[in-house]
Amino acid sequence: MNGTVPGGDPPTSLLSRAIVSAAIRNSLTKLVPRVQFRNPVTLGVYVASIFTTIFGLATAVGAPDGARRSAFVLAIAAWLWLSVLLANFAESVAAEWGKARAATLRSMGRNLYAKRLLGINRSEYRLVEAGALRRGDLVLVEANDIIPADSTVIEGAASVSEAAVTGESAPVLRAVRRDVSYVSRGTRVLSDWLVVRVRSREGFFDPMVTIWEGARGSGTPQEIVLSMLLATAPIAFLLSIAPLAPRSAGAGGVLALSALVALLVCSIPITTRAAVAALGFVSMARLMRANVIATSGVAVEAAADIDVLVLDKTGTITRGDRHAVAFRPAPGIAARDLLDVAQLASLADDTPEGRSIVALVMQMPDQQLRDLSDMAPTFHEFSAQTRISGIDLEGRRLRKGAADAVCHFAKAAGGSWPPAVSELVDEVARSGATPLVVADGPRVLGVIDLRDIVKSGIREHCAALRRMGIKTIMVTGDNRLTATAIAAEVGVDDFLAEATPERKRELIRQCQKEGHRVAMCGDGTNDAPALAQADVAVSMNSGTQMAKEASNLVALDSDPTKFIAIVETGRQMLMTRRSLTTFSMAIDLAKYFAIMPVTLAATYPALNALNVMRLMSPRSAILSAVIFTALIIGPLLVLAARGVKARAEAAARRSRGTPWIYGLAGILLPWVGIKLIDVCLTAFGLV
What is the pTM of this model? Predict the structure, then answer.
């Protein structure tokens, strides 16, 4: 038995009360030195806030006119503290949102339960969580159960679906025999039962985790460049202002030192940091509306530069369960006879294949569901040994199953195997489908065509990606004939057949060596190494937990066509980051050059000629710049939340003019804003 334990729903709205409340608390908590010293951007403003606060208090008690001077310095200190708090708030909201997202992702995981045997009797077992199993434990797994741990079969035989591990949709036999006795965690028993002994916890899954952890890359190039820019801006200012500091301190006293502090604050890109911090969680919120969970903003931004998309077949491109799509009668056999026997042989078959056969028969003209309530039938379930199922009814033995199994059954009943049926079987196999042969005792009636159903919209999705400059590659564990047929149906640009987990990973690595940015969409444990290697990893919510853990995005509705929304969101995020960085850095430079002449004019009178804004006094100029720095954080956060539109075209042709428009606005805005604040401060006599 497999169960789920529902997880609580974390607060996931963008500015929910819980997230805002936690962010406010964290904003205050982050004021402690041990936290601020780890933040190179806000550290400068933080130290400046402490300095001006202490300096203002010392001035108040150390000089006859200290009250007036200290009021000015403490006003600067108050606005500096507000700047730090607002920057902390932006980062805290992002952090709290990330925690909520992680909690949401964890809540999607299933707690797998296992039937741990208490003795040698298969009917005596206890349900335990899979994580509580230990090496050597005996576990019973029956039809439709998920194997809870890497194990060895010690009793029984069963048909097992290993699509989650190998990508191959056809079931395999697992039994006590040495060559087929190993079963992997996450695979599903389709029929019969097995008693397995849990092996070492170091099995198929643990190397996947190691590969995943080792493949996690650094930030995007934009992240790296921005971090370097934010760190070097204050250093460059300190180097340029250092020769002026001793002379200014001696010449102007409180005012000169306050001016140096104000200029330092203006050079620190705290507004950039505050705005950019919001970009990640805003982008993740947009994806959430598209039913995609992102575990990091970096992954969303990286999607902007993707030019190769690798798509797993089973469970991603296709639904993962084979369905009947056609009936192919043997020569000389009436289609009605084939349909009737196929339906009767499938009435007790509760697998997706069996149900699809009955459903397809019902869609045919003049076909009705057969009622067996008065006929006392004998049903034969599918088993891993026989690979055949059916019904005994009124002296007739009706069967369906694998070609070799039905051939053996028909010959044992006194019949023969028509060569034309072999041709039908080969034709279905070459088309990329699975042949299922139907027999009425010694008579072989024909073949049922079982196919993996391609998810709707995939072909159009691949065409849209091609127009966006993104190449699509399908990878599958199926043979080359099957892969060729499905690749043609889906419309991908290329494909890789008989792909092992390592071959999938190597394909992505080779593309990366050629200079491509690669995304991977998958759903199985066998996809985990490739997902970990890819620059952007998208897993299906219907996939295994290992696939989700190796991914940085999860499609909640298991729809791979959501990758277009991911790319568009990433491109918008990248364009917004570039525009915000240009805008806020231009603001910082404009602030610096706007107030520098008037604040240092007492020390260097020649700078008065550069006071083109005609700021009223050094005091008003300094306080105006500090107030403007704090006030501009709010509008920048709003701009980050709204985002900058990016054109839906190939990455190489994206518009490059938008950031420079924001840069020009960033140069002009401080001159207007600081002048207005300066006029107001002077008019109300606040300086």
Answer: 0.61
